[in-house]
Amino acid sequence: MKIKVAWIGKTKEPAIDSLTAEYLKRISRFAEVEALPLKEEAQLSALATGSSNRKTSSNHRHKLVLLDSRGKQFSSEELAEFIEREQIAAVPLLFAIGGTDGFSSETRQLAQATLSLGKMTLPHELARVVLLEQLYRAFTILKNYPYHLGH
Question: Taking the CB of the first residue and of the last residue of the chain, which one, N or C, has fewer CB atoms within 10 A?
Fold first, then answer.
């Protein structure tokens, strides 16, 4: 499975970079994962549609999953089921965290799924770490690793 996690904007806190790297390393045991810091939302649209000029690991269409407070909320187990379904479909996933103003209506129209991390508002950098931790947790659930205790 191929997963890309993209975010718009610069990372201000070094601790976020450290946690991002740690969870990317953990996820890489289960899937091909790539982090994509983007300067602007237009780059995200290009990645999602496969019209990117960037030299990434692949240049084809991805299933775009936007993180947004208006999206669907999953339990950790439900996220694992989502990941499992997407593994079977074999379409690379592109999870995206917007900038401070969220996503434009054009990008929302490109998305095949919208995911909410909960009703609380999170800073975008923290949302990235929470997403990565939950992706790691989803893989450990699927592989029956003891990381997730289900409580």
Answer: C
Whole-number pLDDT of residue 53: 52
CA separation for the pair 141, 46 (Å, rounded): 32
What values do phi and psi take at 120, rounded to 5?
-75, 150
Give which of 145, 133, 138, 113 is closest to 20, Cα–Cα.
133
Residues 23-80: pLDDT tens digits?
Answer: 999 999 999 999 999 999 999 988 888 775 544 444 457 899 999 988 999 999 999 9
Alpha helices in the chain (DSSP H): 14-27, 41-49, 76-89, 105-110, 124-142
> If one looks up domain 2-142 in CATH, what number appears?
3.40.1280.10
